[in-house]
Amino acid sequence: MAAEREPPPLGDGKPTDFEDLEDGEDLFTSTVSTLESSPSSPEPASLPAEDISANSNGPKPTEVVLDDDREDLFAEATEEVSLDSPEREPILSSEPSPAVTPVTPTTLIAPRIESKSMSAPVIFDRSREEIEEEANGDIFDIEIGVSDPEKVGDGMNAYMAYRVTTKTSLSMFSKSEFSVKRRFSDFLGLHSKLASKYLHVGYIVPPAPEKSIVGMTKVKVGKEDSSSTEFVEKRRAALERYLQRTVKHPTLLQDPDLRQFLESSELPRAVNTQALSGAGILRMVNKAADAVNKMTIKMNESDAVRWFEEKQQQFENLDQQLRKLHVSVEALVCHRKELSANTAAFAKSAAMLGNSEDHTALSRALSQLAEVEEKIDQLHQEQAFADFYMFSELLSDYIRLIAAVKGVFDHRMKCWQKWEDAQITLLKKREAEAKMMVANKPDKIQQAKNEIREWEAKVQQGERDFEQISKTIRKEVGRFEKERVKDFKTVIIKYLESLVQTQQQLIKYWEAFLPEAKAIA
Amino acid sequence: MRACAGPRLGAAMMEGLDDGPDFLSEEDRGLKAINVDLQSDAALQVDISDALSERDKVKFTVHTKSSLPNFKQNEFSVVRQHEEFIWLHDSFVENEDYAGYIIPPAPPRPDFDASREKLQKLGEGEGSMTKEEFTKMKQELEAEYLAIFKKTVAMHEVFLCRVAAHPILRRDLNFHVFLEYNQDLSVRGKNKKEKLEDFFKNMVKSADGVIVSGVKDVDDFFEHERTFLLEYHNRVKDASAKSDRMTRSHKSAADDYNRIGSSLYALGTQDSTDICKFFLKVSELFDKTRKIEARVSADEDLKLSDLLKYYLRESQAAKDLLYRRSRSLVDYENANKALDKARAKNKDVLQAETSQQLCCQKFEKISESAKQELIDFKTRRVAAFRKNLVELAELELKHAKGNLQLLQNCLAVLNGDT
């Protein structure tokens, strides 16, 4: 992930990145540029932008530190469910990739990347332009659908395969319409890769749907009841929303892993699907609480700091409010389902009553009432469906998204901490040098001087990283807020329209019944 | 629960529900004639003009207007409590002369326990919610309390009106005492012993009922009625219970709208983006639509659940009538057998003859009035169902249209803004 490369500006209209790229000053490019370019491209040597630390041609120890950090991160946040053998296979072929599998601390910088046999640089140029244009016009011409859940296999090894269909006019894809089959762990694998690449540099990566052992077991075992079909449908819809959110993100859209996920027919199995669970992220955030305190004391009062503090507070409030609303909406879903069941029961009872009523006209009217109530029961069911899939799921998606946002703020904290630590170490090294000078040990002095140079570089790097992540987060938050407003407005309006439909139907039914009731003589 | 001195049900309309006065008056009028199609009769008109809810009892002001000579004045009022209504009802049931009539079912005991508990819980939880939420919920619970109160008043009134409309029962002396005597009737509620006696009496009656109903009736009309009533009663019971549950679910959903509205309001006031106006508008929508949904639930309760509950009780009263007739038939047949035996032995024949004649008369009298009562019952029932089903459909339509209007207006504003 390019530390200094900003993601394509949304609606900015300035292809700044492009200019920089052409200047050739920077050795660092964004993810966009990297994998597309073959080694022989006229572009400046691209570093694997996935690795943030690669930006510094600095010494290895930096990476080690970072990797360790990342390992820590994942150690706390992941839920490991090993599906097969515990052997971890690198997921993306031979490519030097960052710690999706944070195993080897020795990285991952290679000045060149093996091209992944992707499109030639020419096409890359165009597609980059294209994306920017589209970004400026805010039209991401890509549509994702997740459909046709299909059970594959038997017993405990069974799984659901979903069809992922992509329709797009973006030229970075080889076709304009294509579909592949994916299973749930593939989605988790995708999220895991994206998170490991982008989260720690400040990009808000949409979280994947949660795992559910109970739900899946029922499906595996083959319980063909309504609750397992509901579970599968809930999951399918969640996966669709997840992908749609991910492709809306201009930076993520250009990620090769995402493209591979959407396009290639064969995807290597994500064996250890380490998902950043909500709980894991919360743990990270809580641990960072101390860092916040330290930070706010030490940092200068500046607009930037205040902005971040304010935003964090705002997201905290938003989180609370959304949770509260979510609880109420879930209660509504529950009661609506209850209402539907009770209406159905009443309809049957009214029919029975109509049967035993010996006054003919009244008997008929009661039967009609029973029919009306049965239809109304259907209506309630559909409304409960809308309550849930539109309103309730929107809220739970955003609650998880905000957790991701908090995670990103937390990364910034860690970044700052690293910078601080580097400064402290530098100080110590300087003191050590001074001591050596006094003690007059020339060889040690040289070593000390070397170390000082090393740490000076690290301090600089730390500062750069911190500024970069701060910049990225500000952009991301702006984008996120815009998306959030759009999302909420769209979905809530759709939901209200569902309420309108229900009322219209109700009117139809009761209007049909009224003359029947009046006909009782 | 605080000792509340209100609410009173004056001749004027009740406040507390925010619909216009005409809706309330329709409801009030409806309540009186809710389940019985009564002709207002200048000779004797009874209503409950006022009611007072105290800590553990309700005091009803029974107001009578009559041109009958039996009363000292043409118009007068007394205060009665629930137990006195029960006393009156029981006196009818125990009166042998009324064996051939459907005794109007007694009104159920006023039960504010659930409502009081909720108000108490609300008071305890006051600290944990915002002032606005608290006020909202308090208003809601108070409206609920009021609704229950109005219902119990209506049910007591219906009982009196049924009695007043009945050609024979209206002449009952106890009834007149009930209406006129302006002191406390000093009818204590039945004590434990008497309640136990009642319980056993009912047990015996139902056991008897089984035996007696095994006897096939010669008369087709009564045979049909018996089969019909047994089945009808059970099904009305079932329908009444299911209707209750349905109404309650509806109310729960309406309550959820309330909370959703509050949460949206909080979101709207705190959001930093331009979506806050949006949230506030939607919050307003939920508040308004909730009121309509609550009203739908209340109307369903009134027009459907209450109707079914009333006819549950009336059909029971009709069954009781049939039982009494069967009982008298058995007595008649036993007297016949006794007469035959006496004639065979030629001993106490006159006594047996008199006894048999009395039984015969009693049976025929009951049969005759029972037939009419059952025919009237059907007429009343059909009329009541018609009235309530029509009103139910009209109200459902009214509310659905109101809701639709609300939603469409809101959507127009929201879409216009975006």
TrEMBL record, chain B:
Keyword vocabulary terms for this entry: Protein transport, Transport
Segments traversing the membrane: none
PX domain mapped to chain residues: 38-185
Protein transport listed as a keyword: yes
One BP term from GO: retrograde transport, endosome to Golgi
Matching InterPro entries: AH/BAR_dom_sf (IPR027267), BAR_SNX6 (IPR028657), PX_dom (IPR001683), PX_dom_sf (IPR036871), PX_SNX6 (IPR042136), SNX5/SNX6/SNX32 (IPR014637), Vps5_C (IPR015404)
Gene3D superfamilies per the UniProt record, alphabetical: Arfaptin homology (AH) domain/BAR domain, Phox-like domain
A single GO cellular-component term on record: early endosome membrane
Pfam families cross-referenced by the UniProt entry: PX, Vps5
Gene Ontology MF term list: dynactin binding; phosphatidylinositol binding
PROSITE patterns: PX
Protein family according to the UniProt entry: Belongs to the sorting nexin family.
Protein purpose: Involved in several stages of intracellular trafficking.
Protein's name in the database: Sorting nexin
Source organism (scientific name): Homo sapiens (Human)
Gene symbol of the encoding locus: SNX6
